[in-house]
């Protein structure tokens, strides 16, 4: 990395950002702090969405274990679970979060300038939290439990492969056949591909990164794949389309949005249905100024907790742990598929296919070397899409936690730069969590960066990860989970919903 690049990164870390809210409970304190840090560091090569998801999982699951132990252990512990303790839950969460946060951002993989900018923020939050605690035996015991739970999590993840995967992501990754064999992923020229070996990271709730196999990517010579590329070309351009492409889009179903409006375009702005571009830009969540998709969903979860009046720290920590581990495993599973050898994985992005006029598919006749996507293309392969995996897993967890999918909410995106242009905050409102996930999924087509295969199969993957987690983790001791009682899972429901669409091709 050049000296100028390093200087820019350190300067960006020191820019003013939203500070954590006044102390209203350690779980929310650490979530706010982590989201702020993710916002500052997500543009670095060391902190993409899969790593941010891992950070959320580690911090919130340690807090969950600590508060669960401090309040009598009514739920199944994740990694730390001594007998019932009469201790301060707030002190336990505070110390657990601090222990894990300190460990994560003290890792040499970040580099001294980043750690020097971030660690004082963590200490400042911890100091504020300590000042709010009342002295006494309960607080002392809570701090002790929190330290034990935090250290247990740190030890558990010390050799999970994340550091090696981050280091591998600092080097140039060029798969065999890139730029010479049609269909093979072509990395950007200005940075390495993101985390090519992240699929080797130890999962949190899955038995392996490949526990839920994804359908193989379609052959790029198939008529179905050509149709999916045309759909993205029609719906996700940065500018206007040429007359021949416009005509091809209309003939293929572009005039009715290829049926995607009824499938998922439900976000509203001041009562009006959001446009395709607004949906794409709202859910973009790029590195550099935002906490990326996992952080966006943590922000949504925390806002809904407050909206619903959930002040119990055990429940706050439990939702954070469920959401964090679901997001972390989604990143591991999606990235495992992304970087499988071509043609199973390592698939080029739609812009590469659209700009290539070398007749790579007889059914694709609308190549355009000047076509660019509405949102900047992320530096990792198309198949499968990360955001829909994160989003469906998060939505499924939220539905299970609140035991309902009729909770309406609004969310405001953070400002960021897209393709050199400033994108101001956008507020979208949804009637339920699954509607939001559906919009997040389709947003990647509206943004021009994924195919229908990549997003809908990723959505099913996220649902499978969430179903498995809900059935086996963070459940009340002696009681099955709500999904186990119902005997159904969102993955099955999604499979029924998505497969007919894929059969159109």
Note down, in words, how this protein is organized:
By secondary structure, the protein is mainly alpha-helical. It has two domains: 3-166, Phosphatidic acid phosphatase type 2/haloperoxidase (Vanadium-containing Chloroperoxidase, domain 1); 213-503, Vanadium-containing Chloroperoxidase, domain 2 (Orthogonal Bundle). It is built from 19 helices and six strands. The protein starts with a helix and ends with a helix.
**What is the total tally of β strands?**
6
Give me the number of helical elements: 19
Stated plainly, the CATH topology of the largest domain is called Vanadium-containing Chloroperoxidase, domain 2
Shape: globular
What is the rounded distance between the termini? Answer: 44 Å
Brief summary of the model shown:
With 505 residues, the protein is mainly α. It contains 19 helices and six strands.
Key words describing this protein structure:
single chain, 505 residues, mainly alpha, Vanadium-containing Chloroperoxidase, domain 1, Vanadium-containing Chloroperoxidase, domain 2, 2 domains, two-stranded antiparallel sheet, globular, disordered C terminus
SSE layout and pairing:
Blueprint: H1 3-13, H2 26-41, H3 49-70, H4 89-106, H5 112-132, H6 137-157, H7 162-168, H8 223-235, H9 243-252, H10 260-264, E1 268-269, E2 272-273, H11 276-282, H12 292-307, H13 313-338, H14 350-355, H15 386-402, E3 409-412, E4 416-418, E5 421-423, E6 427-430, H16 433-446, H17 452-472, H18 482-486, H19 490-503
Antiparallel strand pairs: 1-2, 3-6, 4-5
Helix pairs in contact: 2-3, 2-4, 2-5, 2-12, 2-13, 3-4, 3-6, 3-12, 3-13, 4-5, 4-6, 8-9, 11-16, 12-13, 12-15, 13-15, 13-17, 15-16, 15-17, 16-17, 17-19
């Amino acid at each position: 990395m050049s000296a100028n690049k390093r200087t820019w990164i350190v300067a960006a870390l020191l820019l003013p950002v939203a500070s954590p809210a006044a102390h209203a409970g350690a779980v929310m304190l650490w979530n706010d702090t982590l989201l702020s840090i993710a916002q500052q560091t997500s543009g670095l090569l060391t902190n993409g969405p899969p790593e941010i998801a891992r950070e959320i999982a580690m911090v919130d699951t340690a807090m969950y274990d600590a508060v669960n132990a401090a309040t009598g252990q009514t739920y199944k512990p994740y990694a730390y679970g001594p007998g019932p303790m009469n201790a301060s839950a707030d002190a336990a969460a505070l110390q657990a979060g601090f222990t894990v946060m300190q460990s994560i951002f003290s890792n040499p993989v970040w580099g001294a300038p980043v750690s020097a900018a971030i660690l004082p923020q963590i200490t400042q939050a911890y100091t504020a939290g300590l000042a709010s605690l009342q002295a006494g035996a309960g607080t002392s015991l809570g701090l002790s439990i929190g330290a034990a739970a935090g250290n247990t999590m740190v030890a558990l993840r010390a050799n999970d492969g994340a550091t090696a995967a981050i280091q591998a992501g600092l080097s140039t990754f060029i798969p065999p056949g890139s730029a010479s064999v049609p269909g093979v992923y072509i990395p950007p020229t200005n940075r390495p591909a993101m985390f090519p070996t992240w699929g080797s990271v130890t999962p949190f709730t899955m038995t392996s990164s490949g526990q839920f196999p994804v359908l193989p990517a379609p052959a790029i010579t198939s008529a179905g794949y050509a149709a999916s590329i045309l759909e993205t070309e029609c719906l996700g351009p940065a500018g206007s389309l040429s007359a021949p492409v416009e005509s091809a889009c209309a003939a293929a179903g572009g005039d009715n949005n290829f049926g995607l409006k009824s499938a998922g375009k439900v976000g509203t702005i001041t009562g009006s249905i959001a446009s395709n571009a607004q949906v794409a830009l709202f859910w973009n969540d790029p590195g550099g100024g935002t906490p990326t998709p996992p952080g966006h969903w943590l922000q949504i979860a925390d806002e809904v907790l407050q909206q619903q009046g959930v002040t119990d720290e055990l429940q706050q920590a439990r939702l954070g742990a469920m959401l964090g581990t679901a997001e972390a495993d989604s990143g591991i599973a999606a990235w495992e598929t992304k970087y499988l050898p071509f043609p199973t994985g390592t698939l080029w992005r739609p812009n590469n296919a659209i700009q290539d006029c070398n007749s790579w598919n007889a059914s694709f006749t609308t190549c355009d070397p000047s076509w660019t996507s509405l949102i900047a293309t992320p530096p990792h392969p198309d198949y499968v899409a990360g955001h829909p995996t994160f989003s469906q897993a998060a939505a499924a967890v939220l539905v299970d936690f609140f035991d309902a999918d009729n909770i309406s909410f609004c969310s405001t995106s953070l400002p960021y730069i897209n393709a050199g242009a400033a994108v101001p905050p956008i507020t979208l409102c949804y009637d339920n969590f699954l509607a939001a996930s559906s919009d997040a999924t389709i947003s990647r087509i509206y943004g021009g960066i994924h195919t229908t295969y990549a997003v809908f199969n990723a959505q099913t993957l996220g649902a499978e990860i969430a179903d498995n987690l809900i059935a086996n983790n963070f459940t009340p001791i002696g009681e099955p989970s709500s999904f186990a009682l119902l005997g159904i899972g969102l993955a099955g429901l999604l499979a029924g919903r998505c497969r007919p669409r894929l059969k159109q091709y």
